[in-house]
Amino acid sequence: MATTQVQVSPDKEAAGRSNERTPDPCIVVIFGASGDLTKRKLLPALYHLQQANLLPKDFAVVGVARRPLEASFAPDMKEGIIAGGGVEDNDPKLAPFVDRVQYHAMNFDDAAGYDALKKKLAELDGKFNTKGNRLFYLATAPEYFSDIITYLGQNGMAQPKADKDGHAPWVRTIIEKPFGHDLESARALNDEVNKVFNEDQIFRIDHYLGKETVQNILVFRFANGIFENVWNRNYIDHVEITAAESIGIEGRGPFYEQAGALRDVVQNHVMELLSFVAMEPPVSFQADAVRAEKVKVWKAISPIHPADTVRGQYGPGIVDGKTVPGYRQEDRVHPRSQTETYAAIRLEIENWRWAGVPFYIRAGKRLPKRVTEITIQFKQPPMLLFKGGECHDSSAIKPNLISMRIQPDEGISLRFGAKLPGPSMDISPVHMNFSYADAFGKSSANGYERLLLDAMLGDGTLFAHRDGVEATWALMTPILKAWAETPVKDFPNYAAGTWGPSAADALLESEGRKWRKL
Ligand SMILES: NC(=O)C1=CN([C@@H]2O[C@H](COP(=O)(O)OP(=O)(O)OC[C@H]3O[C@@H](n4cnc5c(N)ncnc54)[C@H](OP(=O)(O)O)[C@@H]3O)[C@@H](O)[C@H]2O)C=CC1
Ligand SMILES: O=C1O[C@H](COP(=O)(O)O)[C@@H](O)[C@H](O)[C@H]1O
């Protein structure tokens, strides 16, 4: 049965930015400056902020890494921004931005390097009028988090002294994922970090929270009067969250071997999505209020039984028309690796809103396409009036769905049944579709822009809190433990370019459901 699209028009006049804020003058110090994340995401994001006049007039960026890149760092970054950011070489804001990007070579575990860094930052304060304010971004492998934090503390760089007027500059730190490896290591890292920084100085980043479409889940639910009334166990049959990627591990073998899909994306990105879908309305859009409601959701999830989990690993296959190797054939991956590149879980949230509503989540690499989507499937009406009788094909009567397309093709659609024109009461599913691009134009934001800006502003609403990180690890750790105790015999169990192992289908089929075709 054909599906009809009903477009939703944006209210162009009402669409516009409000609440734009400019941070204080500051230096952003990026540990891991020559790394992939800095090149592909962080510097382009800072540049886009500058282009949009959202950075303070007085700011500087200092990249820190091991290699001696003093001469080549700024030109390399300029090229990276041009290549990755859709920016022209002659963009008038590019040269002034690059002039403020500096490099400092040091080894993260060398105490003397921090002394030199401290002096360099003080000099740059003089040159760029950045007033001693610092945002330290830990964009490096997690084994260095603890060293860097400790040395910053020992050098007095974490808690700067107040001047004679009692004014102290601010210092904050953004810590990349993965924040810990399991519950125990996450707690230990939290303890280390909390010895040096107060909780309100710590910004544990999950770039999914910087995505417009993720923030829009809260707007959709709490800025509209009509959805929240049906957002509960009385009306919702089940919820699906899919985070599918067509890419493989992109040369990150050693990292991924230690991580796997559960640690890499489920513990953080997918759990964040789930909390936004399931949380109660917070009392305000302030960091503490929002984080408190998220933690309540994670804590209300019943312990996840290993039988409600599925793990997969891709073998060779075809993605986007190209033959790709299996996971075990990837560079620096063990030929008999037990690492999962796919995970699916069925879980329940034991609270008044959600009891009895299954949440099915799945995430994986080398699936047929890149798509992150949340589907809310509603219950059928109690009496299917049009079943039989004049309706020739009652299988066309589909349950209502709200699907939130996080990426790509960002937007939201609502599926409902409509009467097919003609003499009988035949029904066809149609979609009312809101597309971000159609409504507001294409956005170049990658999530990091919003989060870097918020951290410079000291707004932790869209960052993870200690309690939240530990709550999500508390859910994942027993699964990881059970999986480690029972090696898989049938890996690889899905071909690259397919939708994961058949056991993931069985997880839903045993309850009379199917993953939605994406
Ligand atoms: N890449 C991505 O898309 C994403 C990454 N992340 C997270 O971001 C973090 C960084 O990832 P990524 O950029 O991919 O990592 P890379 O391996 O590409 O970069 C690591 C950086 O750390 C530096 N470095 C490593 N060891 C030392 C040392 N002993 N002393 C000084 N510098 C050192 C390297 O410098 P040098 O070159 O001089 O050795 C390099 O700049 C990780 O925590 C990752 O999980 C999170 C989401 C996405
Ligand atoms: O954190 C990570 O996220 C990316 C996926 O991010 P997206 O914004 O492209 O959806 C994933 O590829 C990577 O393995 C993981 O470390």
TrEMBL record:
It catalyses: D-glucose 6-phosphate + NADP(+) = 6-phospho-D-glucono-1,5-lactone + NADPH + H(+). GO terms for biological process: glucose metabolic process; pentose-phosphate shunt, oxidative branch. NADP(+) binds at residues 32-39, 66, 177. Residues 218-516 form the Glucose-6-phosphate dehydrogenase C-terminal domain. PROSITE patterns: G6P_DEHYDROGENASE. Transmembrane segments: none annotated. The active site is at 269 (proton acceptor). Its EC number is 1.1.1.49. Keywords: Carbohydrate metabolism, Glucose metabolism, NADP, Oxidoreductase. Catalyzes the oxidation of glucose 6-phosphate to 6-phosphogluconolactone. Belongs to the glucose-6-phosphate dehydrogenase family. This is Glucose-6-phosphate 1-dehydrogenase. It comes from Edaphobacter modestus.
